[in-house]
Specification:
With 311 residues, this protein is of the alpha+beta class. The protein contains five helices and 13 strands.
Length: 311
């Protein structure tokens, strides 16, 4: 009688840590001092998640990965593998996108940011990275997405404006049995704060729609190989809020993924209140043995999310 293959159990978590600082290098300094309450909160939250693979957003990017390394070094159980994902946020476009009469401001970048790299994403893993099997889709021009609806833009801006406000990545990890696990990560633009042009709302919708098109094989990139997990902050609630709900509803209803952790993931307070903006969507057929939405840490806006999967 053949022996059934043993399933590989992996815990995967996502959290928008909200560690963005007001200038480059300041996150490293804050972590080194370890006196800022948000740093202590982040360290305690990461430890409590006990995830094999943790995707963070709201972590400033630097080319040397110094901030991520410093954060990891302060953990009681540091991760052996780290990858800081460079965001499009803050990268200059050379155009006056916000219509204030000047090019070069925070609102004229590929995505609004006080400096290049503000509010990036990162992966901390106990599984090794498979660099050759990983992909970065973040340079795809917005105009090149099939079915795109571009807002009014300055002449020539469509030739440089990227789809990803932060980034779209396929980060491959090596499972113990030799297979590759693909993390499909993104952090979409806020659908608001665009001065009435509709640019952010349209972009937010297309950033989510990217994944449906990728799964369809309708982009100039191969569809992701199994097994995969979609993970990140869409900044879109399927039922309320300012985002176009169509793309996120379509993604949640896609039979190729599982929606196993419904409910609000952030509380913006005031008239906005609680919204579902973050997601972990494993591919169909993967066994989900745990799905948890942890309480929001004190002073934090976002809930950490955690799944335990068997591949």
């Amino acid at each position: 009688m053949p022996v059934a293959a043993r399933a590989e159990a992996v815990s995967i978590a996502f959290w928008n840590a909200g560690l963005e600082q007001s200038g480059p290098g300041r996150l490293v300094a804050a972590i080194d001092r370890a006196t800022a309450p948000e740093i202590a909160t982040a360290l305690a939250t990461i430890a409590a998640l006990e995830a094999d693979v943790l995707v963070l957003s709201g972590v400033d990017y630097d080319a040397g990965g110094l901030a991520l390394a410093a954060l990891n070094a302060r953990l009681d159980r540091p991760y052996p593998y780290l990858r800081a994902l460079r965001p499009n946020a803050g990268l200059a476009t050379g155009f006056d996108l916000d219509g204030d009469g000047h090019a070069g401001g925070a609102g004229d970048a590929q995505s609004y940011a006080a400096f290049p790299g503000q509010g990036g994403m990162a992966v901390l893993s106990r599984l090794p990275f498979l660099t050759e099997a990983s992909r970065d889709f973040s340079t795809l021009l917005w105009r090149d997405l099939p079915g795109v609806r571009l807002p009014p833009l300055p002449e020539g801006a469509a030739e440089v404006l990227r789809l990803s406000s932060n980034g779209h990545h396929d980060t491959a990890l090596g499972l113990p049995d030799g297979r590759a696990l693909h993390l499909l990560t993104w952090h979409g633009a806020s659908p608001a704060f665009d001065g009435g042009t509709g640019r952010n709302r349209l972009r937010n919708a297309d950033e989510t729609r990217f994944w449906s098109l990728l799964l369809d094989g309708a982009l100039p990139f191969a569809a992701p190989r199994a097994p995969f997990v979609l993970i990140g902050q869409a900044n879109a609630d399927p039922d309320r809020g300012e985002a176009d709900p169509g793309p996120i509803r379509a993604l949640l209803a896609d039979p190729r993924v599982q929606d196993v952790l419904p409910g609000p993931t952030a509380d913006y307070g005031g008239t906005i209140g609680a919204l579902r903006v973050a997601y972990i969507l494993p591919m169909a057929g993967v066994s989900v043995t745990e799905a948890s939405r942890l309480p929001r840490p004190e002073g934090a806006r976002h809930h950490p999310l955690r799944l335990r999967l068997e591949f």
